[in-house]
Predict the structure.
Amino acid sequence: MMNFEVYKFPPRETVGGIPVFVEDDEYVRNYDQISGDHLQSISDNGINPFMDENYWQSIEKQTGFLLEKHLGQMLDRDLRILDVGVGTGRLLSDLCGCEKYGVDISLSYLELAQAKGIEVCKAKIEDLPYTDESMNIIVCTDVLEHVIDLHASISSLLKVLKADGVLILRVPYRERLNAYFSDTYPYSLAHIRSFCEFELLILFERVYNCKVVEWDLCGYTWQRPRLLDGSKTSRAFTKAILFFARKIMSKTLFQRFTEQICSPCEINMCIRKI
């Protein structure tokens, strides 16, 4: 049942029990196309067309570790966690002892997240419909690289976060964006910016007066060779090395080896609202 007290205004409509706060526009339709292609590929052959499953699990594991760590440090009895860009709900699905909320602009994703016990709504990050200071923890993974108005998006996140609450971000790290401008790229918009640790530190500590409590790099992959020139040849060579290393190394040793010969593609950051 929908918890109406958490929303600051009524939805435009309700579809399948999901409150809808956003009007469809070109931006929403673009991401409906992306989510549709994603879910169709999963249904047809079990493959994520945008990201290798092992890679996705590795970065999600590190984000999940940070989430559980900060959840365990919360003293409030009635904890509320919001996943902005909840997708299919995998990150929150196994959490217990808290109220779980999720927002996305894809109704197809929201239906799957709702089935996992997450209270969901369809809305844009720039205008989150939740009451001010209603969430103890907000998770926002692989979202800020997509948004048009970064300032409005961050302001909206911090507005619904409680004082002393934690915002856990994951965004691409020093990503090259040329592929998204190619004539052959199938979507009108995808990633429109990338980040580094110093940009995020300045943004959240100097501009928004928050406190960055920790951050880590993740997503080490053969597609970003550290020691070579980044060409197709060097990527193929690095992939081959990792293929054989995986066969002879323990999981822990292989992870350390990967971090030595590859560069990170993502960064997690935990920000406390002061």
Summary: The two ends are 33 Å apart (CA to CA). The helical segments are 26-45, 53-72, 107-114, 150-160, 197-207, 232-248, 251-261. The chain is about 35% helix and 20% strand. The chain has one domain: 4-218+265-272.
